[in-house]
Task: structure prediction
Amino acid sequence: MRPPISSHTHGLIDYAAAAAFAAVPRLFGWDRMMTRTMDAAALGTVAYAHLTDYEAGAVPVLSMRQHLAVDALEGATFLAAAWMLDEEPPAVRWTLAGFGAFALLASGLTRRQAGGHPGDFLSSPGAARGGHRTRAGAWVMDADGEDRTMHLPSGRGRRPETAGRQPRGPEFRRHIAADRGSVGPADRDPSLVTGPGQGI
Result:
């Protein structure tokens, strides 16, 4: 079964979790030691998110699998802290346990293949549809998706998703059908046909 959380969505979760780690102690008046500890957790989460090779990262040092392993370790640490810090109020310990359980859940439900690379967070044409961008710049759909258009970087920007497509007239479709010896998907949906250099 394919995990439901994409790396793109996981990036949003990472930064939201870091913000929660820093905000919750202040909102609920935790003591200084716990507030500083949670600030360290927030900074650590932002740091390894920035070092992950996914859409929300900045420097591709960690793979998505390694990132998720760190997530799981962070979750286990929160759960251990909730159990060990018996001098803290129950509300604090339950909150730590909640953070830990959430981190483990997010780690287990996220896809191991990143959907893109640093810099793709706002520009990935297939982020909402699944798939991932190769290091050469091509957008490759996952096994249950389909996209036969090559998307390559142009300078520092990205080409629009439809930039590589060409108009497909009736004559072109008839030629393809004749070449295949039967009427195929090309006659029903011209956008599924790719020309030379357009396929992946």
The chain is about 50% helix and 5% strand.
